[in-house]
Amino acid sequence: MAAHVIKFCHFFWLLKHWLDDHSLFPISLITNELSFLELIFKLLLLLLLVMFLGRPSLVQLPFRALFRCLHSSSHHHQHQQQQPKLVLGIETSCDDTGIALLRASDGAILAEVTASQTALHVSNGGIIPPVARDLHRSAIDRCVGECLKTAGDISARDLAAVAVTLRPGLSLSLLVGCQYAKKLSAKYRLPVVPIHHMEAHALTAMLQYDQLRFPFLCLLISGLLCSK
User: Fold this and answer.
1) Does 86-208 carry CATH code 3.30.420.40?
2) Nearest to 176 by CA among 91, 63, 108, 115
3) Which residues contact 112 (CB under 8 A, 6 or more apart)?
4) Sign of CA dihedral 135, 160, 76, 69
5) What are the tens digits of pLDDT across the range 143-192?
6) Domain residue limits, the chain
7) What is the per-residue burial (b if ≥16 Cβ within 10 Å, else e) of 79-104?
8) What pTM, to 2 d.p., does this model score?
């Protein structure tokens, strides 16, 4: 009997953390008026009642199935924590759709894909914002897929965060990247890192010069964008 009680408490503790971590059903919703110990006590009474009725299988079978599921989820979560943290970068500030995957620990770029719109805009005599927006929309999903595949068949579930250009730039183009980043964030529960376009240009110097440290002086010239 004691073994069943211990397993039940362990199961409920795993269930609580699994529900909280996955935001499916926060345990606080059912513990507003009951303390955690009171809730466990009442569930224990229910478990013992069913067991003493001579039908332990009614409780044991579903508990065993859920227990295995929770353990599997816990092991999967631990496996993900051991993997290197990967950040997906999305750039759609103007007329090129740029996607890159980097390793957060050392900033190494594992893969990058760019879909250029230059040829079409040259034929139009300049960048037309609605046209640039539509081209971003048609290219961004393909670029993300190619980038993840080039990096070694990485899945979006392996990502630790999504970084996306927030400003400055063409508003219609920026909106495409931001919306895509929000979609990935909602689907895979990823944090979104907003990136200032001009600051990012300045920081690319650190990719070329490993020994460069803050503070450093940088001359940044832009022929199209301005920023406060």
Assistant:
1) yes
2) 91
3) 98, 99, 100, 101, 147
4) negative
5) 999 999 999 978 999 999 999 999 888 999 999 999 999 999 999 999 99
6) 2-82, 86-208
7) eeeeeeebbbbbbbbbbbbbbbbbee
8) 0.63
